[in-house]
Amino acid sequence: MKKKIILVAAAAIALSVLAACGKAGEEKPAGGNNHAGHGESSGQENAEKPAGQLENLQASFAFPAGAAKANEETELTIQVTDKDGKPVNKYEVNHEKLLHLIIVNHDLSFFNHIHPEFKGDGTFTVNTSFPAGGEYKVFADFIPTGGAKITLSEWVKVEGKEAKHSAIAADAKLVKEVDGKEIELAMSAIKPKEDVTLTFNIRDAKTKKGIDNLQPYLGAVGHVVILSEDANQYLHVHPIDEKATGPDAKFATSFPQSGTFKIWGQFQHNGEVFTVPFVVDVK
């Protein structure tokens, strides 16, 4: 499935009607890069478009020089087209942005969540950089007007020396310290296909006092992205109470299958966004 990055095209996907609060959807086996979106879209059809025109959307990802180089800023272009190859030009604002771009490396040790700018003609662009050579997976997460929230993805290769590969292993303890904050993750369930509430408790690392003045990040108390260890299963989860300010931030989802998953929670405090990762085994 992995491809070189000279204007690689994501395989066709089928849109699905979605439930609120980040219910999980499974990647379709046929294409290998179609993910059900995880958000609050209703998936109603757009009366201006013929039935089926918002199905089988495709995305291509390209760099100006044909390839990106490690530690060099480069422009990444994403173009979204319909099943007839025509540009998709109408999108819904989803948590303050038209498109969320998630980038991870081969062992999920690198994570980046950025927001390309829409340029028209179905095209989004963003400047970014990669910390080392090797393979990265890019996920374009968006809602076409009249359609359901979807995610198109592709593996791309970055030129340069690769970083050391690290095994993905579940955390023995779900407590992490990031930027002077101690974050503890509690999960109401740990079995596949069961409803689960993820509760992030955020406190001051020194005083252990709960932080209750979290600021909105992209219109909500926080955002959570979850990937299976092979990056084939993707979940973008939004909070149960978007207006919460801490110390607890709760998210509802379900894991589509058993296996090892990496979870990134993103929050904002005192004007700074911080990201906390956890790895869990779902059995």
Describe this structure in words.
This protein is mainly β. The chain folds into 2 domains: 8-159, Immunoglobulin-like, CATH 2.60.40; 175-282, Sandwich (Immunoglobulin-like), CATH 2.60.40.1930. The chain has no helices and 19 strands. It has strands at 8-9, 34-36, 58-62, 68-69, 74-81, 99-105, 111-114, 117-120, 123-128, 134-142, 150-159, 175-178, 181-187, 196-204, 223-228, 234-237, 248-253, 259-269, 272-282. Strands 2, 4, 6, 7, 10 and 11 form a 6-stranded mixed sheet that branches. It has a 5-stranded antiparallel sheet with strand order 1-3-5-9-8, with no helix packed on it. A hairpin with a 5-residue loop joins strand 15 and strand 16. The protein is globular and about 55 Å long.
Largest sheet: 6 strands, mixed
What is the 3D shape?
globular
Strand proportion, as a percent range, falls in 35-45%
- Report the count of strand segments: 19
Count of distinct structural domains: 2
Q: Structural class from helices and strands?
A: mainly beta
What is the alpha-carbon Rg in Å?
A: 18 Å
**pLDDT < 50 runs, ≥5 residues:** 1-52
Let me know the CATH homologous superfamily of the largest domain: Macroglobulin (MG2) domain
Number of helices: 0
Level of helix content? under 10%
Broad CATH class of the largest domain: Mainly Beta
Kindly identify the CATH topology of the largest domain.
Answer: Immunoglobulin-like
Distance between the termini: 27 Å
Name the CATH architecture of the largest domain.
Answer: Sandwich
The secondary-structure element order is EEEEEEEEEEEEEEEEEEE
Mean pLDDT: 84
